[in-house]
């Protein structure tokens, strides 16, 4: 849950130069056995002083058992799986599943993945995997039957969602690269970027997303459920935020502290910026959160973060196994602790409401001088909005865009404005509202009264849907 972060050991590098450092012990060590190599590494680099009886343990796993929970000894295969997870890579067929009465339903398919190439589509229901029935089974059971090693295959029997016919297809399992950065323009021209992992190319992907979305009235950067990644990715990501010049402080064995600067990026967020966090934002996510909060580079929305304030480094042993070792603890640039404390948001929200509230606040911040009307709660999905004024209006001066219905966390919903009489208009959404959705209805003051006087204030109100 806590994720991990790694960086070059300070003894060899004075700045963060790489994403992680492999110490190739086979080329530099006089020891023949990995256990002796590991013992010396733990003794020299582990962040805490250890009693001799720990270092005297006869195996690496026994020594590691007495270290912190983030220090781990991995085989070469386990390490490959570990780094694939950081880089958002997995072996599979590329489907997202949910339980169904008849089997396991495909909710969505990763574009250009094996399932898509085999002709599977969202809505298809998987009923067998290699001859084993999936009827009544959990998604977890289905995943265990469908997943497997790279370059093997699984034969799936499924109900075609279009024809209702029973079909069979054999699908290869391949390495699938999940998108690490998701980006879209929300209603009101608010740029939204989600980072799933502090992976090797995170800063390049974020830069591309900012440039693709173009100028925005505000930005929302989402690192909820982001368990961390590389220290250097955190250092680079801090450089996207306005006014943020320092990334974090590291303290090594002996409490020696060193502050690292944020790395300025070719494209950056322009104010206002919101940063979304939650209890599963950990490690490198907390590095960025602590730095941005302290330097007021963004307003933090969500819940207190996980509280993993330690850094791990990677050491490759002579047999190609890997020792992941906690070598430092990190703090905010000014020294505020993170470990077992986390980072508190500026504005606390209920879990799952981070984006809705952030988007709402971004929109309302651009409506200075507008009058807030009471919230409409639990309206039907077919709701038509009626606006009635006290005096006669020249509604014909209303133009497209003067009336906006924006789904919070989503895009603008097209509406038709119908004039009932000189005091009344009806606002008709052009598609049903989303059930349980939240919206902001805005009427900009771009029309005039019968006396040719321009309106001096707009209006807005919040809407929740049944």
Short description:
With 466 residues, this protein is α+β, with helices and mostly antiparallel strands. The chain contains 11 helices and 31 strands. It folds into 3 domains: 93-176, PDZ domain (Pdz3 Domain); 183-310 and 330-357, 2-enoyl-CoA Hydratase, Chain A, domain 1; 368-465, Immunoglobulin-like (Sandwich), CATH 2.60.40.1220.
Structural notes for this entry:
The protein has eleven helices and 31 strands. It has 466 residues and is α+β, with helices and mostly antiparallel strands. It has three domains: 93-176, Pdz3 Domain, CATH 2.30.42; 183-310 and 330-357, 2-enoyl-CoA Hydratase, Chain A, domain 1; 368-465, Immunoglobulin-like (Sandwich), CATH 2.60.40. Strands 1, 2, 14, 15, 18 and 19 form a six-stranded mixed β-sheet that branches. The longest helix is centred in the first third of the chain and has 12 residues, at 34-45. The radius of gyration is 27 Å and the shape is flat. 38% of the residues are buried. Residues 1-32 have low confidence and may be disordered. Keywords: Hydrolase, Protease, Serine protease, Signal. One of its GO terms (biological process) is proteolysis. Pfam families: PDZ_6, Peptidase_S41. InterPro entries: ClpP/crotonase-like_dom_sf (IPR029045), PDZ (IPR001478), PDZ_6 (IPR041489), PDZ_sf (IPR036034), Peptidase_S41A (IPR004447), Tail-specific_protease (IPR005151).
